[in-house]
């Protein structure tokens, strides 16, 4: 990513957060960046595309991490561990992006909304598949409805943006470890939980 492109994104995050999407013009952004409109339009077709890029950045991150976890581990419980870790870490890496997303997503143009929804749905499907495969291996309790379970996990973690602070009493890895501990003790069978607690990944948890 070019230095100017990154600066435009950082500036727009600050301005959108303070004034809202419609309270900020391209002129405002370029003025704060000390660049020209030509510099802006070299990187973004419009302010609408800029809002899309802000949304897409963190959604692409968690989706890429989920696919990486699927390739790296054969066992669903280890895939789930890595997915949860990255899903929580996104609130530290892209906290401003997520705040702007939740504040301004209603202004996202339909063409961009379709692209974002597709990636969100892809992530939900991967999570659902991992849970289902874990149930088939008797690692995750079979009596738990797969869809409700996956949506419950997302609902729990997605609320993090409301209260997480970078300078808070717990680090993002400590928060991730707490989520993993709560979720695994609720989802895993006794045998799978015992095996997980002996694993290298479990030893990485910090509280």
Give a nutshell description of this structure.
With 207 residues, this protein is mainly α. The protein has 11 helices and no strands. It has helices spanning 3-19, 26-33, 37-43, 47-72, 76-93, 95-104, 110-136, 146-158, 172-187, 190-197, 200-203.
Can you put this structure into words, describing what you see?
By secondary structure, this protein is mainly alpha-helical. It is built from eleven helices and no strands. Helix 4 (47-72) packs antiparallel against helix 5 (76-93) and helix 5 (76-93) runs antiparallel to helix 7. The two termini are 35 Å apart. The relative contact order is 0.11. The model has no long low-confidence stretch (mean pLDDT 95).
